[in-house]
Design brief:
about 160 residues; mainly beta; 4-stranded antiparallel sheet
């Protein structure tokens, strides 16, 4: 496929190209990544090409944006930092969506209808049919048919 990024006010073409997947960074303005092939990911800073990254898995099948760049493989997801493309963590789950809390220290990987929280924070969680609750002093995740609320319950 292809992507085109326009400025919001003047609708000028800011960046364009071919890509299999596209993901925005939650950190910088104009920072994004594209998946060009199963073995090649390019990151951009302020709409300019920054790095080419070879993911540490056999085949990249998808991208997710956020505080870290997440690359989905056939049987896992790996997290890379946006600055250098350095490996952060691998999780043996194949998510369909990834949600981040505001501080970026916790994420939720949604796989089919099961929500799992992966975080370095200590917290408590419990689940009920079609509902999962997790909370810490700083973060609250509630999934009810993929509805996500933050600790201040903004929705």
């Amino acid at each position: 496929g292809e992507y085109i990024i326009y400025t919001s006010q003047a609708l000028r073409n800011k960046a364009f190209g071919s890509a299999l997947d596209f993901a925005w960074s939650a950190i910088g303005t104009g920072d994004f990544a594209i998946r060009e092939s199963i073995s090649k990911i390019k990151t951009f800073r302020n709409f300019k090409e920054h790095k080419t990254v070879k993911p540490p898995i056999s085949a990249a099948e998808g991208l997710f944006g956020g505080h870290l760049l997440a690359v989905r493989g056939a049987d896992c997801v790996v997290f890379l930092d946006w600055a250098e493309g350095a490996f952060i963590r691998k999780i043996d789950v194949v998510p369909t969506q990834i949600f981040w809390n505001e501080t970026g220290d916790g994420s939720v990987a949604v796989h089919d209808t099961v929500s799992r929280l992966y975080t370095d924070s200590v917290g408590y969680g419990f689940s009920m049919p079609q509902c999962f609750f997790f909370f810490t002093l700083r973060f609250c995740f509630i999934s009810i048919d993929f509805l996500v609320l933050d600790a201040e319950m903004n929705y």
